[in-house]
């Protein structure tokens, strides 16, 4: 007898949702990395020329930080529309807006061409980037998780987070190629290439997202007439504590990743008296550990539970910063690589389960808003300021121990948050009367899917 293959449209949608989310995360961290590299290497000369190159570089790097200021606004705005109008249309908007802003940077005139208008336009583009990113990650995670089967949500959600390393690797490879150009070509047109190339990833991502169906759990919310008019108000009224716990929960992963992938290059020069190229040679192969270990963490989460794996990873990051920084002091390539590998294993266990874990601590009708705000606040607290804090600690203490203590302290906060942060099915929910929020009466189909 010949076996007949049965086409499963639900599985197709699940795969497309995963691909769309992964591309969005890859674009986000690709943009994050190329902007940071350009700020350090070329933007000072092109957009902030001064008699003091140090001041120019500081002004250039300040535009990198400005992007973080717009993220909470984007989290609130896109969270509102994601919970009111749907995940799909909101995600198309965030990726499209992010792509336009990044592409626009590659087309901007320089200070030498239009004067003060050049840095102003650069700041505007950076604010638009940050605004769109504020809603991108939470929405991408929700579309993936809400389309996935319950027994596979940990693994599928973890695959979204491999986009972090994919974006970092791709950005470094593209910029490494551009930096081989002669200085005159680099500063005239070469620096634009990484920004313009982002359009390829964005185009693929938009194509996939437009072919997606709406999240089945959001469709169930609409069918049950429980869509809120002001999700942000309801999030803080019903789930404010969970938003705070989520922000605390992400600190360990945010600090570990930012110090390892960004600050380590500066630490190589000031703390180890090594060239930045030496640290990049260690960092790039070490990022492969994340690509391998994050999906493994997702598999473990599907078997043992999201919260348990998250707590194990956060607990390991209390100890591993001391091991990582101690091994860096050897200045021996293979021991430094071992230090990064161990740190990234702990990071992967902690961060790999964030999509499945954090997306399920809010009721479906408030997930986009709740997750976007909680994640963004934690991201700013953990990622935006950690390089400055580490720089201050190294300068005031003269050694690496203070940095390790800081990283461990942030991980303690994440462990405490994880002990109290329960997934939706594990905690009693406050009663919700949908009547005040209903824009119009609606009779739900008796076969409508239930919200998990």
TrEMBL record:
The keyword GTP-binding does not apply. Coiled coil: none annotated. Its main location: membrane. The keyword Zinc does not apply. GO terms for cellular component: plasma membrane. Keywords: Cell membrane, Membrane, Symport, Transmembrane, Transmembrane helix, Transport. PROSITE patterns: MFS. It is found in: Cell membrane. It is a multi-pass membrane protein. SUPFAM superfamilies: MFS general substrate transporter. Residues 426-452 are annotated as: Disordered. Residues 17-426 form the Major facilitator superfamily (MFS) profile domain. The chain crosses the membrane at residues 29-48, 54-78, 90-110, 116-138, 159-179, 191-212, 243-263, 278-297, 309-327, 333-354, 366-386, 398-421. GO terms for molecular function: symporter activity. Belongs to the major facilitator superfamily. Metabolite:H+ Symporter (MHS) family (TC 2.A.1.6) family. May be a proton symporter involved in the uptake of osmolytes such as proline and glycine betaine. This is Putative proline/betaine transporter. It comes from Streptomyces violaceusniger (strain Tu 4113).
